[in-house]
Amino acid sequence: MKVIWIIAVGLLAACAQAQNVNYTIQETVPGCNILDTFAIANYSHPPACATSGTCVNMTGKVVLITGASTGMGRASAERLAQAGATVVGTSRYPWLYHDVTTFQLWQLEYTSDDSVKQLVSRVGATYGKIDFLYLNAGRQYVGEIANSDLRQVELTINSMVMGHLKVIQAALPLMPKTGYARILQTSSVESQIGAPGYLPYTISKWAMQAMQEVWLTEHLGGKSNIIYSSILPGTVNSSLPQKAVYGCPELYNSQAAQPWYNSYTGSMVLQPEQIGEAVYQIAIDPQPRLRYLAMNDQQYATLIPVWCRRQRLPMEQWYDMAAPEEQAWFQGEWTENTQLNCSAHCNGTEFCGAAPMGEQYTGTYTIGPYK
Predict the structure, then answer these.
(1) How far does the signal peptide extend, from start to end residue (predicted)?
(2) Over 50: is that where the pLDDT of 14 sits?
(3) Element (H or E) spanning 248, and its range?
(4) What is the domain partition of the chain in residue ranges?
(5) Is CATH 3.10.180.10 the classification given to domain 48-295+314-361?
(6) At 4, phi and psi to the nearest 5?
(7) pLDDT for 241-267, tens place per residue?
(8) What pLDDT is stored for residue 13 in this prediction?
(9) DSSP letters spanning 10-79
């Protein structure tokens, strides 16, 4: 039965992607309509607007993408540039990426007010407008509630919540007041369900979804021409695990981290280029949806049972009486993440406090000392 169900999910997902429509899964929890509330991001076939001839022409459009040096942001920048858009991407260290040739890569430090203002002012002075703003920059800190370094938690939230808000506020005056104007943000499936070990990342993604919803309620009835959408990817084979900050930095690049690295390269992941294609198709859609899921068939089959029960059941039942599939998923997440936290290295003590931070970690894919 389980094998048949997974195959059915795969067929449904393939059908949904082929037709670019939503679908409903009833087998997991009766009445579950999770997938009726999202659009399915298309990355595997021509967009529907190509048939009708209504796709937006990106030639002459100015695109600003935060976090574009690697991964999804870079793939999106390259795809939109290929379509004729003028693309400015950002990076904390743009001088490290000499191989970027199809778009501009400018410096941005999300946590700095001055850096945000300088970037947007430069875009305005150079191109005069921002037609498509893609908020993609982010960071990953792996830590559980009891042992997370609060400085790292604060920095993660400041980057992915306050950083996005700063860029939006700075960019809005440059966005057209009529006609085409878009904001897209990279959220996550973790904006819908809390996974163990991802405390600040999950908090940030939930907050981003709330920010989008507040914007929508502030602009009911067509008060703004700006369409603000979210894309919620599952696992993507990007630089995120290599650039993650661990709850126990001593474990950086260690054997203990290998299972977590592997989870970003297995059969359940999407490639950055697939997300790039999905972002491009959202950009050219004359009537884009507001929330898109971007996963492959295996991700749908794994996460939808958990997600459906999370939506339909009282929290007590969902938390205490999870189905075997859910227990296995949560246990797998927890096993991977505890290997990257100091809790796993405390001689059996459950809580050992947050990991130290010092100059010795600078340049080893951590932020170094908090300043």
Answers:
(1) 1-18
(2) no
(3) none
(4) 48-295+314-361
(5) no
(6) -60, -40
(7) 667 776 665 555 555 556 656 666 666
(8) 40
(9) HHHHHHHHHHT------SSSTT--GGGSSEE---SS--HHHHHT-PPP-TT-EEEESS-SSHHHHHHHHH
